[in-house]
Amino acid sequence: MNLEEFIRQNRSGFEEDGPGPDVWAALEKQLPQPRKERGRVVAMMARHWWKAAILVALIANAGLLVKYLNTRQPVAVVIPEIREMETYYSARIEQKLETLKQLPAAETGLDSLTMKELELRNDTYKMLEKELAANPGNERVRAAMIRYYQMKLELLDKILEEQNKYANDSTSTSTEKHVL
Amino acid sequence: MPVTDQLMARCRKGDSRAFHDLYHAYSRAMYNICLRMTGHQADAEDVLQEAFVQIFKNLDNLASDTSLTAWIKRIVVNHCLSYLRKKKVYFEEVEDQEWKQEEGVDETEHTLTVAAVKDAIGQLPAGYRTVLNLYIFEDYSHREIAGLLNISESTVKTQYMRAKEKVRQIVKLKSKQI
């Protein structure tokens, strides 16, 4: 009989008793802390609180500016500049939204309601567009529209940047795990 | 106690009783790996403790399709290898030719006993002992061992053949002395 066969047939003879109680005693002091049960939405909001905060700012910014518009100067013709600005921002926002939609919701921490707010042609946007169509010459509406686009772009950039960081961290962790 | 999904879920919530049950389910088998790899009881317990700290912390990262036992064993083996590296145990490459020359080693064994084989394995140089332990006791393939030790597969085969030959010689010598 060769060595491998001998060891495999007498395997139990090669096994010692388990470790002493000191190992568990030391381990017990290093156990991960119990986690409080939180609702999924609450937990998600806790992790992604800043996104929620920016979204609130985004909505408030557009809403308030429209709400406090005090001059209405209907003009029949839509100014070409506005169309250009819309095309420019829309293309960039749509492109980033497309990238974001490729990512699983669990990773981004964005629920369907939040995603809806991020989408380009949502209620806030429609409200602004309506105001702009009604008041194409009104500087404040145009400024509000531009600000709305910019904030949306900034937010999308920030989310995508965070996702990249998260993805890189996950890659290094999974590489580490793969090495284990 | 069997390791159930429910037990794993309790661990993930940080239930200390569940951690204890998980540890209890694996501690003996994993301690034996540490003992074989380090050769010392105190060191084996230290390595086991470090490995379990990592296991407990990373349970959340365990993919659902990964075998828990294989994952735990891999972490324990890695901690043992880190321990050996700290002890300056090197796994060096050997020429392919040496392996070919040693392929024909006579494997006819003398009267083997568990005690004699255990003692002989204990006397092996750490590098040989590691390869032999990983192959025979932990059921890793030559290729997997090569990956773990960052050496070529042929080196693993050579070291393994040499380890077996050394065990055979030690057992033979011991039986003559009796």
From TrEMBL, chain A:
It comes from the Bacteria. This is Anti-sigma factor.
Automatic annotation (TrEMBL), chain B:
It comes from the Bacteria. Residues 22-88 form the RNA polymerase sigma-70 region domain. Residues 116-166 form the RNA polymerase sigma factor 70 region 4 type domain. PANTHER family: RNA POLYMERASE ECF-TYPE SIGMA FACTO, RNA POLYMERASE SIGMA-70 FACTOR ECF SUBFAMILY. The lineage of its organism: Bacteria, Pseudomonadati, Bacteroidota, Chitinophagia, Chitinophagales. This is RNA polymerase sigma factor. Keywords: DNA-binding, Sigma factor, Transcription, Transcription regulation. PROSITE patterns: SIGMA70_ECF. Belongs to the sigma-70 factor family. ECF subfamily. InterPro entries: RNA_pol_sigma-70-like (IPR039425), RNA_pol_sigma-70_dom (IPR014284), RNA_pol_sigma70_ECF_CS (IPR000838), RNA_pol_sigma70_r2 (IPR007627), RNA_pol_sigma70_r4_t2 (IPR013249), RNA_pol_sigma_r2 (IPR013325), RNA_pol_sigma_r3/r4-like (IPR013324), WH-like_DNA-bd_sf (IPR036388). It holds the Pfam family Sigma70_r2.
